[in-house]
Specification:
With 303 residues, the protein is of the alpha+beta class. The chain has nine helices and 14 strands. Keywords: Membrane, Signal-anchor, Transmembrane, Transmembrane helix.
């Protein structure tokens, strides 16, 4: 199966925080600690340039999270073909979430060029991606999680599949996705979030299906009993995730912010236009829409 299309891998991260730490218990403490130490990247920045001080999670301060679903390729670092930005507010017990089109034309911070936003990862890895997205949105990015797309099918199968409400019937290879509520295992979920060619909404339709899968995974995972299979989950996490969050920060999020999952609001970029530059297709953001979403995200962070 081709890896070229974007993959919604955000769940691995939330499994780590909202699921993995949900089952935090004394008999798995050592295994959990070891895994989360392995995925922690201490060299990644700790404080956004748009914030004055580091966030103290114990004070229930709203925070933001950037999720990069990376398609790695032989000979290079790959591309961040899924770029998902979230703000989490424990006071309103809500999450705001927006998917950034991977072909968005913007300044690549640190490279001094204009290019597709997903190329930032190929040029400078997680750090350049964070700086580029933050510059585009003008919203502080507090935490980042990189997830390799290979782990997507594993995590869906691990939790027993996902259930989504499909708004239109379509077929991918030999699989028919019927209209209405359907259950998907890992391979099917991969096809479901990848399909774009036969969708009249194109990439935006695909982003909608990604969000459906995210929400299903979050709701199912938050109530999933994985104590007996925690080693399998920890192996998937260790093989596919990198983050600047520490174990202590994850524990604090589980303790202080877990009710935020109750309300997830999806925002979207819809008013931009496609444009060819030197034969290459780019998505050009609508400045008014970009400013509106930036303002809404900053307000959600109480900035």
């Amino acid at each position: 199966m081709s890896k070229k299309n974007i993959i919604l891998l955000v769940l691995l991260f939330f499994c780590c925080i909202f699921i993995g730490l949900f089952f935090y218990a004394q008999n798995v403490y050592s295994d959990v600690t070891t895994t989360l130490q392995e995925i922690h990247e201490p060299e990644l920045r700790k404080v956004s340039v748009l914030r004055k001080d580091e966030i103290v999670l114990q004070k229930k301060i709203p925070f933001s999270l950037l999720i990069l679903g990376v398609d790695k390729r032989e000979g290079d670092k790959g591309r961040s073909d899924t770029i998902l930005f979230l703000t989490v507010n424990p006071t309103s017990e809500s999450i705001k979430m927006v998917s950034i089109p991977r072909d968005t034309y913007t300044e690549i911070i640190g490279k001094e060029i204009q290019d597709k936003i997903n190329h930032a990862y190929a040029f400078g890895g997680i750090e350049m991606s964070v700086n580029t997205v933050e510059n585009l949105l003008n919203v502080p990015i507090d935490y980042v999680i990189q997830i390799d797309m290979e782990g997507f099918k594993d995590i869906v199968d691990f939790i027993g599949g996902v259930t989504v409400n499909n708004d239109r019937s379509f077929q991918v290879n030999d699989t028919i996705f019927k209209e209405g509520e359907i259950s998907l295992h890992g391979e099917q979920a991969l096809d479901y979030v990848q399909m774009r060619k036969d969708d009249p909404q194109g990439d935006f339709g695909r982003q909608l299906r990604q969000k459906q899968v995210i929400q299903s995974l979050l709701k199912k995972g938050a109530n999933f009993n994985i104590l007996l299979k925690h080693n399998e989950l920890l192996h998937i996490i260790e093989e596919n995730i990198q983050t600047n969050m520490t174990f202590e920060q994850m524990l604090n999020i589980q303790k202080e912010y877990k009710k935020s999952i109750n309300t997830i609001e999806s925002l979207s970029f819809e008013d931009g236009v496609g444009e060819l530059k030197n034969g290459i297709w780019y998505y050009m953001m609508n400045e008014d829409e970009l400013n509106d979403i930036s303002r809404e995200m900053n307000e959600h962070l109480k900035m």
